[in-house]
Amino acid sequence: QVQVVESGGGLVQAGGSLRLSCAASGGIFSVYAMGWFRQAPGKEREFVAAISRSGGITRYANSVKGRFTISRDNAQNTVSLQMNSLKPEDTAVYYCAVDASTLYSAANAPGLYDYWGQGTQVTVST
């Protein structure tokens, strides 16, 4: 069983930055692709960013491309999401997810992920 814990959420003004971190334990982190998703009130969970096992492949939702950067540190078993130029529409609960299948490099479908964190709230004010 893999445990996933996010941290780093908070309240920020539009145009500001936040850095989310995710720690995964209980498995072999370096073989997992990792992803970030978010869910706003009344909306479905949506893909934000994903990164392959080695970190060599990244994928972003169009809505965050150029503003968010996903990275990972396999020595520390962590993945991060640097969020710049935040907008009020980025307000959501952000979830870190583990793809333990080894079948995909950086999947964007939530159904392909096996383990999820509890989420961390990001609120962007105007």
Please work out how many helical segments DSSP would assign: 0
Radius of gyration, taken over Cα atoms and rounded to an integer in Å: 13 Å
By secondary-structure content and strand pairing, the structural class works out as mainly beta
Helix content: under 10%
Number of strands: 11
SSE string, helices as H and strands as E: EEEEEEEEEEE
Give the CA-CA distance, first to last residue: 40 Å
- Taken as a percent bin, the fraction of beta residues is over 45%
What is the typical, i.e. mean, pLDDT? Answer: 96
Low-confidence runs: none
| Gross morphology | globular
Described by strand count, sense and barrel closure, the largest sheet is:
7 strands, mixed
Account of the 3D structure:
By secondary structure, this protein is mostly beta strands. The protein is 0% helix and 48% strand. It contains no helices and eleven strands. It has strands at 3-7, 10-13, 18-25, 33-39, 46-51, 58-60, 68-73, 78-83, 92-99, 115-116, 120-125. Strands 2, 4, 5, 6, 9, 10 and 11 form a seven-stranded mixed β-sheet that branches. A four-stranded antiparallel β-sheet has the order 1-3-8-7, with no helix packed on it.
